[in-house]
Amino acid sequence: DFVVGTAVAGGGHHLEQDYPDPFTYDREYRKVLGRQFSSVSPENQMKWDYIHPERDRYDFGQADAIVEFAERNKQVVRGHTLLWHSQNPAWLEQGDFSQEELREILREHITTVVGRYAGKIQQWDVANEIFDDQGKLRTQDNIWIRELGPGIVADAFRWAHEADPKAKLFFNDYNVEGVNAKSDAYYALIQDLLEQGVPVDGFSVQGHLSTRYGFPGDLEDNLRRFDALGLETAVTELDVRMDLPESGVPTEAQEQKQADYYQRTLEACLAVDGCNSFTIWGFTDKYSWVPVFFEGEGFANVMTDDYERKPAFYALRDTL
Ligand code: XIL
């Protein structure tokens, strides 16, 4: 049942200029995507700004294409994402809506998007990054929580469940790999929601790691405590960035360290019963978001720009 996935590149701000759409235009990319993975996650193509560009218009083109590709290649799909503070369209963020209107906008969006792919999505990241690093709810930058209060999160899960009773519904975040204030906040919230009967099925750690900050050695322990709540767990966006080498080419030591982080993340997931989904955030450095978002860091993926396999690729393969 264990699936190994990747994000499907396309639509990101960092790609728009150079590579508008690798998924459609890069044949080598599609070949690796179809062959090496049993799960796919749209990197941007199901996010609000992409799929719902105007209030009365959806753009399902790329999301449909990814879901069809997955069906042809016998892959499952992780849906990403429904309630988030980022990558929302301007019409939403800058609109002037009443509380009732906003609530209806979210309900309609979730019902439409989840309903469209009902039966075809294994896991949905219903709520993405709702806590900050201190473990405080994002009551300022998350439009939904700010305008409608924290109860909207439970409603999002209920609406998603109604639209696709088979999909497993997740909370997803970064910097929650280890046991810390932020993962503690999720633990407390999810416990509370489960007691209320809210349909939460899983907790996932993104896994945007950096060799600068060390490996979260308590990852397995952390996954286990969510497992003990009866939840599924997952790694959803693993990449391991490194300091940009002066020579322009990573050293062997850098690549070994990176491989080690990849391997330990996979081992932690494999060690936990309900951790059945392990996804890397892209496979080639060519289309990585990392150099654009993290100054001075890069080379975070398991293949080079030319699709050569790095030590991290083999480390994962040999661990599986
Ligand atoms: C990133 C994408 O990789 C980029 O293409 C986009 O420009 C910004 O978002 N956490 C998430 C992902 O949940 O959706 C983010 O993806 C990375 C951090």
TrEMBL record:
<feature type="domain" description="GH10">
    <location>
        <begin position="16"/>
        <end position="319"/>
    </location>
</feature>
<keyword id="KW-0378">Hydrolase</keyword>
<protein>
    <recommendedName>
        <fullName>Beta-xylanase</fullName>
        <ecNumber>3.2.1.8</ecNumber>
    </recommendedName>
</protein>
<keyword id="KW-0624">Polysaccharide degradation</keyword>
<keyword id="KW-0732">Signal</keyword>
<keyword id="KW-0119">Carbohydrate metabolism</keyword>
<keyword id="KW-0858">Xylan degradation</keyword>
<keyword id="KW-0326">Glycosidase</keyword>
<comment type="similarity">
    <text>Belongs to the glycosyl hydrolase 10 (cellulase F) family.</text>
</comment>
